[in-house]
Amino acid sequence: MKLKVLPPTLRKNNRYLTVDIKVKSKITKDELVTIIWDACTRFQGELNTADFNLWVMRFFEIEKNDGYYRYKSIIRCQRDHVEQVRSSFALVNKYNGDRIAITTIGLSGTIKASEKYI
Fold it and tell me: What's phi and psi for 18, nearest 5 deg?
């Protein structure tokens, strides 16, 4: 028996954040997931973070400049919680003893539209 697909009216409304990441050491996609979840959990708590529906959709390594590695990523979150997620990203400043900065450079309703910021 096949599963039924939810109609668009019953699906969760998502937004896609394009973020720019500057860090002193190399990171992987799995480490970025850890950084994002830790930031949201520390600032918003576990109960609110569970409602965010966070997911790293794409992860790109851009370049190494002046001792910093630059990455760009597309992160999915719930439409109602975009501002809370962005504020959690702004509070991240260290990861494994290295300095890190996560900046939101774009917000869109689809992955395809968010890729234009990369």
Answer: -100, 120
Q: Residues 3-30: pLDDT tens digits?
A: 888 898 888 899 999 999 999 999 999 9
Q: What is the dihedral of CA 85, 111, 62, 80, to 10 degrees?
A: -10
| pTM listed for this prediction | 0.87
| Integer Cα distance of 25 and 69 in angstroms | 7
- Whether the CB-CB separation of 17 and 86 falls below 8 Å is answered with yes
CA 32 to chain centre: 8
Main-chain phi, psi angles of 54, to 5 degrees: -75, 140
Which of the four CATH numbers 3.30.470.30, 3.20.20.140, 3.30.70.3250, 3.40.718.10 does domain 14-117 have? 3.30.70.3250
Residue 41 Cα distances to 5, 36, 47, 51, 75, angstroms: 31, 9, 8, 11, 16
